[in-house]
Amino acid sequence: MQAWRISKHSTANDLSGTGAAQFGGRWNHADEPAVYLALSASGCALDTLIQCAGLPQPGFQLVHLQLPSDPALYWQPAQTELPPGWDVTPADRPSMDFGSAWLERREQLGLIVPSATVTHTRTLLLNPRHPAMAHVRVLAVRPFACS
Question: Domains of the chain: which residue ranges?
């Protein structure tokens, strides 16, 4: 499986989840490490542009990753299994509680959920505490530029 993320140059190879743990995110509470990815480069770019309300600052990188392909390592709940309010902006407790509970169980490497900004694309939340994280590899890091 392949996935992408956009990050600052200084954190392009950091898969520890500490960035998401600093403030929390849509699918994790603060102090809960997580790595946010998208299942397509275009979905990743679109999410970033919408969340930033414009073009990101210079110095951002598009990071391409290779993940283990075993389907048992990923959980994709049906949209009806997601808590009401999972897609509100800004992110609120329902999605944070859901994702944090999943992270704490450590049953799978990845949680595949709809993007809150473009529900036709998929977001992938990785659990850096799962043993299979050792098999996640950065394939390429390229400047993310919109022109």
Answer: 2-143
